[in-house]
Amino acid sequence: MRSSFLWLTLLLVLAGCREPRSQSARADAPEVGATPGGAESSRAEPGVEFEAPRLIPAIRAQMTEIQDPQGATEGNLTAFKNGVGALIDAMVADLNGLGVTDAGDFSALSDSIGRQIGGGSGTPAAISPDQGRQAAARVERLIRMYEERMRKAAR
């Protein structure tokens, strides 16, 4: 219970540390992984912020935590599972909002991750620490795929 509270606190702190929109806007193409508060694209409507970029730092922090044998507790694995589910939904929404088509590899990987870590927000993770570490590596690959597609869409 305590670690879930810590993760929730971390997520709230990260959400509060975003730069105001006027400071994050740039004239050149945005770096999705480096743009606080969301990436923008010339194809997106003005004022639209993407959801996944603000969730990625918290998921990466969770992945770092479960890589540590002492950090791979049931609470941390559950927080990771729930966070990954929200992140995947946000990435799909962002890509669909830009009209980015999927050749199948993104969907296949995200579906596979969802099956591996289990579904249903609020339910305990039904994975071992080793399975959590394997899922973390696959989530990192999915994040890189998302960031690459967002960069291409921004051009």
How does this model look, in words?
The chain is an all-alpha fold. It is built from 6 helices and no strands. It has one domain (2-154). The relative contact order is 0.16.
Q: Can you lay out the helices and strands and say which pair or pack?
A:
Blueprint: H1 2-16, H2 21-24, H3 52-67, H4 74-97, H5 105-117, H6 129-154
Helix pairs in contact: 1-3, 1-4, 3-4, 3-6, 4-6, 5-6
Radius of gyration of CA atoms, rounded to a whole number = 16 Å
Query: How many distinct beta strands?
Result: 0
**Could you say which overall geometry the principal axes of the C-alpha atoms support?**
elongated
Major beta-sheet overview: none
Poorly predicted ranges (pLDDT <50, ≥5 residues)?
A: 20-42
Helix content: 55-70%
Total helices: the number is: 6
Secondary structure category: mainly alpha
Strand content: under 5%
Overall pLDDT level: 77
Order of helices and strands: HHHHHH
Number of separate domains: 1
Oligomeric state of the chains?
single chain
End-to-end CA span: 44 Å
Q: What would you say about this model in short?
A:
By secondary structure, the chain is mainly α. It has helices at 2-16, 21-24, 52-67, 74-97, 105-117, 129-154. The protein contains 6 helices and no strands.
Q: What tags apply to this protein structure?
A:
single chain, 155 residues, mainly alpha, 0% strand, elongated
